[in-house]
Structures are given as C-alpha cells and as structure tokens.
Amino acid sequence: MFLKIRNITFVLLAALTLGACSQYQKVLKEDDIKAKYAMADSLYTQGIKEEKNSKLKKALRLLDQIMPQYRGKPQGERLAYIYSNTYYELESYFDSGYQFERFTKAYPRSEKAEEAYYKSAKSYYEISPRFSLDQTETHKAINKFQEYISRYPDGEFIGDANEYVSNLRDKLDKKAYSIAKQYHHTEDYKAAIAALNNFIEDNPGSKYLEKAYFYKFDSAYILAINSYAQLVPQRLRAAKEYYEDYIKYYPEGEFAQQAQEYSVDIEQRLQTNNTNS
C-alpha cells in the first residue's frame, strides 16, 4: 500500500513538472509579452525564495525577450531590477555590474536605488582579479563603492562597503609593492631604491610600508658595499640615512635585528675608510 502511494505521488509530481515545463516552453515561443512578464516574475520570485538557479535561468530567458518592450513603461522599473538581480544571483557579475549601473541611471529615485548602487559595486568587486593581473576592475569597484558611500553615508550596506574598499586598496598596495620589490629581486638596486621610495611616498597607510623601508635600506647597503672604492663612502652614508628612517618607525620591526647588523657593518666600513683616507 505504501509503495502504491509513493508511486502515485511520484507520477503526480512528474506530471506537474512536465506540465510546468510545457507551459514554460509555450510561453517562451509565443509573442504574448504579458504572459512572458508574468511567468518571468513568478519564476524569479520562486528562484529567489527556493534558491534555485534553474528557475532564475528560465526567468532570464524570458526577460531577455521582453526587456526592450517594457522600457519606459510602468513595469519597466520592476523588470530592470529583477533582470539585474537575476544576473547577480547567478553570479554573472560582469552582467550584473553593468545592468545595476544602468538601473541607477534610469531609476535614480527608485526605492531599489541604494541596493543597486551597492550591488553594482559588489559585482565589480567579485570580478576584481588577483593582485598580479591588470587591476582595471579593481579601480572600477573602488570608484563604485565610493559613489555608494558618498550617496548613502548611513546606508544599509555601509559597513560592508568600507570593508570591501579596504580589501581592494590592499590589493592595489600589494601590486605596487611587488612591482617595486621586483627590482630588488633582480638586483637592480638603484631602481629598487627609487621605486621603493616612490611606493613609500604614494602609500603612506600601506601595511607593506615596513618592508618597503627595509628593502630600500637593504638595496642601498648592498649597492654601497659592491661599488667602486671611490663611491663607497657616499653610498654608505646614504644607506645609513635609510637605516635611520627604518629604525625610527620600526624599532622592534620584523627586520630590526638584520638592519642593526647592517648598521654596525656600515659604521665599521666608514671608520675604516676614514682611517685609510
């Protein structure tokens, strides 16, 4: 008896599913934009509620067909929002970033405007690549978040927006630092000193500052001790100044002990040079 009930239930569910699919296909192929609108809205609502991407994808196919016809009509705002948010929920962030951007321009006074500004920025945040790649999308995400923060300083998403901006700026700092540090890695110490100095000046709040200060000093030290004899004293004195900069800000820093050892060697070399002069 139990198996019979189970089988009947399965058959009924299968029939309902097939019926829903056939109805969807029928609406998809017809020219009735009202029917497409109603079904797209229903599928979108169900997809969000049930967290089913399959329904969101079906809604998106219908929305693609009817968006142009509803532009400028009363239903256009609702459609533009669910169209943008469907892409967002499907994690198609290139599309959602662009569509939410269009939404804010078309409907700046919408009750969904704040959410749209935030989700446009968040979409670009999601497609921001790792630090070693081109950072165009990172800069765009920062600009979008700053626009949101400026418009909604007490907004619903302000905490997250500030956190994401911090993450993005850290990524840019890391890229800038890694480029400067690369000169040190390739033993182009003159270029390393200049690049790390520029990094320090351009990124005063970076978490990579200590490393920048140290490797600037380290580059100057290595350059000095490997120079022609007539250049050594001047370059040692320059290295000594960079050491003083580092130890001033990071007296107990990660590289403090190594820096102090180099400093002792610099003093000894300068004393030897003075004695021989």
Automatic annotation (TrEMBL):
Give the record's keywords alphabetically: Cell outer membrane, Membrane, Signal
Record-linked PROSITE patterns: PROKAR_LIPOPROTEIN (PS51257)
* Taxonomic lineage from the root: Bacteria, Pseudomonadati, Bacteroidota, Flavobacteriia, Flavobacteriales
In what residue span(s) does the Outer membrane lipoprotein BamD-like domain sit? 40-193
- Kindly provide the name given to this protein in its UniProt entry: Outer membrane protein assembly factor BamD
Signal peptide interval: 1-20
- Any single Pfam family the record assigns to this protein: YfiO
